[in-house]
Design brief:
Layout (H helix, E strand, L loop, with lengths): L3 H12 L3 H7 L13 H4 L4 E2 L9 E3 L6 H16 L3 E5 L5 H15 L3 H4 L11 E4 L14 E8 L15 H23 L6 H5 L6 E8 L9 E6 L5 E6 L5 E6 L5 E5 L7 E5 L1 H6 L9 E4 L6 E8 L7 E2 L14 E2 H11 L11 H4 L12
Parallel strand pairs: 1-10, 2-3
Antiparallel strand pairs: 3-11, 4-5, 5-6, 6-13, 7-12, 8-11, 8-13, 9-10, 9-12, 14-15
Helix pairs in contact: 4-7, 5-7
Bound molecules: N-oxalylglycine and nickel (II) ion.
Nickel (II) ion binds next to loops.
Keywords: Iron, Metal-binding, Oxidoreductase
GO molecular function: dioxygenase activity; metal ion binding
Cofactor: Fe cation
């Protein structure tokens, strides 16, 4: 629970509608207290330099043109999905120009004068396009050093006039390309689960919803006190992340002694980062892993990234495990609406349930009281 003083400081920051970028523009040389993360969440595991022992695989989709190449790509995707939950793809069909254009547009929106961005700043859950700093500002224990342009792009994109002009043409174009890649990825994952190629798209409608989160992480004067994004797993089937060359994304993997360790996701020109989200872990009955990750704050910046979350968001959509082994369902069936309420209520790194949905929605725990709306 936020103390009254903290709540006052959060409100004052939010009321500027200028985000972390506004603080940096005003010349702050110290990170304000609302952004201080507790030491235990800053040093909750050792950080390993990127090394081949823990590396995030890079999968070349050029292999898909031949049947034998396809089989080895399916094997690589399956292996990554079952272990680190993260991989990068190259030759993925999204042109370099579309990627650099997207990052440049997002950067220029964030670097417009505060007055230009202010009309888009909102916490209204009904707004399909909005700019805000920390969607969980009032829920999380500590704010993070980032601002976000958030847009629900599918099933219906926002009306064009609700999208900031800098991104109005570029974002829908970029999202269309990511959806095409998404189709390929869901085919590969379906095959990796031993199901027919169209299963996740056609039966499970994994391509039907897409949320866009364009993040802007300003250079931070005291990066050791805060984070760019707190530790979390993603509320999605699958996430496709575009990042620039600054870096800072880390994944929590078990090291050779089975101890969790933070591993850097290297930046690779032209590559896209793909990770399994909570909905797919639940639906695959734990075969595929939705792995926790975070973004460290850096003294260099800004860093710009775009996360596209594939998520069904129809309130009637039910998620249930596909059971392919003798062990039975590990999760009860739940609605996407119920999952979304859970994420909103707890914030990114929220207590008491910790990151992700797995303890709450496990088959062993009772359904929560509130009926789906
Ligand atoms: C996210 C996320 C990482 C990044 O948006 O869920 O993990 O590098 N983003 O911005
Ligand atoms: Ni994430």
């Amino acid at each position: 629970m936020a103390s009254e003083r903290r709540l006052y400081a959060l409100k004052a920051f939010d009321d500027t509608k200028a985000g972390v970028k506004g603080l940096v523009d005003a010349g702050v040389t110290a990170v304000p207290t609302i952004f201080h993360h507790p030491p235990e969440s800053l040093d909750d595991a050792p950080t390993h330099p990127h090394g081949h022992q823990f590396s995030i695989p890079v999968i070349d989709l050029a292999g898909l043109v031949t049947p034998s190449g396809r089989a080895s790509v399916v094997g690589a995707v399956k292996a990554a999905a079952e272990t680190v939950g993260f991989f990068q793809v190259v030759n993925h069909g999204v042109p370099e120009a579309a990627m650099s254009g997207m990052l440049a547009a997002l950067r220029s929106f964030n670097e417009e004068p505060a007055e230009a961005k202010r009309p888009y700043y909102s916490r209204d859950p009904g707004r399909r396009a909005k700019y805000e700093s920390n969607f969980d500002l009032f829920q999380s224990r500590a704010a993070s050093w980032r601002d976000t342009l958030f847009m629900e792009m599918a099933p219906e994109p926002p009306p064009p006039e609700e999208i900031p002009p800098a991104c109005r043409r570029v974002a829908p174009e970029y999202v269309g390309l990511v959806q095409r890649l998404g189709r390929t990825l869901f085919e590969l994952l379906s095959e990796g689960m031993g199901l027919r190629r169209g299963y996740l798209e056609e039966e499970q409608e994994c391509l039907d919803g897409l949320s866009f989160a364009g993040h802007y992480y300003p250079a931070c004067p005291e990066p050791h006190l805060t984070l760019g994004a707190a530790r979390h797993s993603d509320p999605s089937f699958l996430t496709v992340l575009l990042q620039d060359a600054v870096g800072g994304l880390q994944v929590l993997v078990d090291d050779d002694k089975n101890q969790p360790a933070w591993v850097d996701v290297p930046t690779a020109a032209g590559a896209l980062v793909v990770n399994i989200g909570d909905y797919l872990q639940l639906m695959s009955n734990d075969r595929f892993k939705s792995v926790e990750h975070r973004v460290v704050a850096k003294s260099v910046g800004p860093r710009v990234s775009v996360a596209c979350f594939f998520r069904a968001d129809a309130s009637t959509r039910v998620l249930e495990p596909i059971v392919t082994d003798a062990g039975g369902a590990r999760y009860r069936s739940t609605t996407v609406a119920e999952l979304v309420r859970h994420y909103r209520a707890k914030g990114l790194d929220g207590v008491p349930n910790g990151p992700g949905c797995f303890s709450v929605f496990s088959a062993a725990s009772a359904p929560s009281g509130s009926p789906p709306t």
